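Q: Sequence in, structure out?
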Amino acid sequence: MTVILAGSIRIAPERLAELRPHLAAQVAGSRGEPGCLAYALSEDPLDPGLIRVFEHFTDAAALEFHRASPHMAAWRAACTELGVFERRMSSFDVSDYREI
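A: Exactly. Output:
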């Protein structure tokens, strides 16, 4: 069973430039983790300050490894410092998936 997380976060549009290096570091660190199948933090092109989140892990253990990683701690600190708000996330346990 794989685990998918999807959602969004918000930041004041005027703080986006400050957040971008942290977005890149978080994505790079996460994609390098064992068990990470996909990881994206993407700016919504029509809604400045809205960041779409997509995470796909092989299993719950890989997700727990991710949550305990040093780059995740740095990401949380940056989000707090820069005033990220409206964090909305959902988790999905997926027993079967296929490309279409």
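The chain has a mean pLDDT of 97.
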